[in-house]
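During the reporting period the student researcher (J.K.) took over the structure-prediction task from the postdoctoral fellow and processed the backlog of single-chain submissions. One of the processed entries is reproduced below for the supervisory committee.
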Amino acid sequence: MKNCLVAQSGGPTVAINASLAGVIQGAIDSKQFDKIYGSLNGVQGLLNGRLMDLSQKFEDTPMFIELLKKSPSMYLGSCRYQLPDYSEDDAPYAYIFNKFEQYDIDAFFYIGGNDSMDTVDKLSTYAKAIDRDIKIIGIPKTIDNDLCITDHTPGYGSAAKYVASTLLEIGHDTSIYPINSVTIVEIMGRDAGWLTGASVLARNKYNFAPHLIYLPEVAFDEKQFIKDVRTAMDRYNNVVIAVSEGIKDAKGQYISATSAVEDTFGHSQLSGTGKCLEYIIKQNIQVKVRSVEINILQRCAAHMSSITDIGEAFRLGRHAVEVALQGKTAVMVTAIRKSNSPYSVDMGDTDVKNVAGLVKHVPREWINDVGNDVTQEFIDYVYPLILGEPVVKYQRGIPDYLDISHLFPNKIGE
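J.K. obtained the following structure tokens:
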């Protein structure tokens, strides 16, 4: 029998380890692989020769799969490494495929977001060019929920649950004083507003926060924003605003972009959108105002995860193994929604070229005409994804997750 290899890449989520668990369980149950290897820190693990035997870990650690499913972040670590065009520099490709041959790898599973699907696409293209029969499969993850074709991405449901819960708690926090105030909550989302839109789920029969929601899909207009805030203050003492970090003006410019700072994939590093809006309000409205940046907090909050999210992430991992055993390659596995009520999805797959380098935006019709709120269609879409609470093991009063000291450069005590 041959072996398989799995790696993780991009930003962490609550559910990405559940997809890893699905790959491991699927490979073991298939009885078609002798060993299951994990590459530490994505494709860089292959380039640096850092592989671990996950088959042995499964055998040596009781309840390994269950613990893995409920542990956040990335058990195998991550990277932000962009492969060059192989026609210009094939050295890293040659090295990676030599490692595949050395470890007798028949299938490679890469769990990640948009940039990771770019890696799947490039490796698949190179494999075809050199006539290597290795199945290369992408498994989606991202809290941003911006991958095309798939209905939603693992990690989004849990992050949406965290955002909605946090906005509800901020609503409670701001309501206790009988004075006027504005609280701006900046939420991750560079080019798509899925995560910010999920803040709408904080609303209930007594809480109307967030009172205003701004997504990147609609051009930000400063004059309209000031008008929106004034109107909201006429109705509510304490106004809470949810805003995506990536809102842009009518010219398509991020209002908070630092153009001189970009990541390895050329994405502008965004910071300070909340502060920008705070300054606008201070200059135009005499009211107490503050901004809060949720930033990375929702990415690893396994204590507030969605069991729907965890379960689907695991299913997608298992499905990726099935797809590889069918002989498919250069594809990303997908979740296709069949129904909202009762909620159900089917597992599928799509050519990775339909995903890599593309962004799925919130449909404009799911945002109100003025551009400061989302519609019932958005609520119906996101609500099923946050449901259910897995049982998280606690020790000394805090969550007890899997040990990840194998990722540390120098282990404590050595």
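The committee noted the following: The mean pLDDT is 92.
J.K. will present the remaining backlog at the next meeting.
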